[in-house]
Amino acid sequence: MARDKELTPAIRERICELHAIGWGYRRIHKRYPDISLSTIRYTVNKESERRDGVSKPRPGRPKKLTEADKDLILNAIREDPKITAEELLAKVDHKVTYRSIKRLLNAENIRK
């Protein structure tokens, strides 16, 4: 199941502002009935962790290729543009699949 939409930074800021001037969670909930009481509590508690009201990025899956590996692949292609995909995979010890190499090259706008 997908998560609910995040609160906009403006609404988050307004909730924290109301809490800072002494409003309780229930009073804020009466003002914004479409936002659950637990979301209001969570928003106020997590405000200290945010930078300028923007959420921290979610961690996601760790990358298999390091920046050094990416540089190694790109340098190999610049030196020999006709290098095969199998040779590129061997340069990074087959850490990734052919499709991952293809995605990296598309991201770098290198084709054929």
Question: If you had to describe this structure to a student in words, what would you say it looks like?
Answer:
The protein is mainly alpha-helical. It has 2 domains: 9-49; 67-107. 53% of the residues lie in helices and 0% in strands. The chain has helices spanning 9-20, 25-31, 37-46, 67-79, 85-91, 98-107. The longest helix is centred in the middle third of the chain and has 13 residues, at 67-79. It is rod-shaped, with a radius of gyration of 24 Å. The mean pLDDT is 88. It comes from Penicillium desertorum.
Give short descriptive properties of this protein.
single chain, 112 residues, mainly alpha, 6 helices, rod-shaped, Homeodomain-like_sf, WH-like_DNA-bd_sf
The low-confidence runs, each spanning 5 or more residues with pLDDT under 50, are none
Helix content: 40-55%
Cα distance, first to last residue? 39 Å
Beta content: under 5%
InterPro entries: Homeodomain-like_sf (IPR009057), WH-like_DNA-bd_sf (IPR036388)
Biased composition (Basic and acidic residues): 46-55
Protein name: Transposase Tc1-like domain-containing protein
Region (Disordered): 46-65
